Amino acid sequence: LHECGSTLQMTPDSLIYKTSLSYKPTPSGNLVIVRTNAAEVPIECHYPRKSNVSSNAVRPTWAPFHSTLSAEERLMFSLRLMNDDWSTERLSNGFQLGESLHLQADVVSGDHVPLRLFVDDCVATLSPDRSSSPRYALIDLNGCLVDGRSDDTTSVFISPRPRQETLQFMVDAFKFAGDDRNLIYITCHLKVAPADQAPNPLNKACSFNKASSLWAPVEGTGDICSCCETGNCP
């Protein structure tokens, strides 16, 4: 940071080190011509002034509260209704019975280590209060798509994922029996685990395969889904 002609600029929130990387092509093989252009690439390194910064030579024994807090705040979760080919968000939230809801959960992880997103549970209610009655569990038991276990549904997690930070699933449209209201609220609990951590009974995405009558995970070994059938998840 202090060599190669670097300059330091200080703002109210940041320390900014600036330098330039210069490239000058030289002839190779044929000494008469070159096939690349000269280039100068500006480089900036930004460091927050209101945080904890340490070099590899410093091993603090205290918990860096500010940097931990800012890292946690950079996790942004979303749950969206998508169109049938998953390319864009669906403009309408109206469905006819017989259609399928395409739901996509995402997390923007900022500067975190690679993360894998899971949907821990989803519940449908007639009010925004997820504990209200009547209520119907779509996903339960730490990632079991229990709605797909019913005889008359094709609800399923989409496999493979488009990326580790995204999880897509389809749910057949439904209404609450004996209730004429057309507005249904779906509330989901989303969570993440390190992408290099193998899925387990607590972090999983399992669908019921009607052809084989078995639960199958989006990733991981089949045994992590066994508690979806027994209902005895840890």
From TrEMBL:
GO molecular function, one term: structural constituent of egg coat
Keywords annotated in UniProt: Cell membrane, Cleavage on pair of basic residues, Disulfide bond, Extracellular matrix, Glycoprotein, Membrane, Secreted, Signal, Transmembrane, Transmembrane helix
InterPro entries from the UniProt entry: ZP-C (IPR055355), ZP-C_dom (IPR042235), ZP-N (IPR055356), ZP_chr (IPR048290), ZP_dom (IPR001507), ZP_dom_CS (IPR017977)
Locations listed in the record: Secreted, Extracellular space, Extracellular matrix; Zona pellucida; Cell membrane
Entry's transmembrane regions: none
Keyword Secreted: yes
Record PTM: Proteolytically cleaved before the transmembrane segment to yield the secreted ectodomain incorporated in the zona pellucida.
First-listed, main subcellular location of the protein, grouped into a coarse class: secreted
SMART domains recorded: ZP
One Gene Ontology term, aspect cellular component: egg coat
Residue intervals of the ZP domain: 1-213
Membrane topology: Single-pass type I membrane protein
Entry's family note: Belongs to the ZP domain family. ZPC subfamily.
Domain note: The ZP domain is involved in the polymerization of the ZP proteins to form the zona pellucida.
Name this polypeptide is given: Zona pellucida sperm-binding protein 3
The species this protein was found in: Gavia stellata
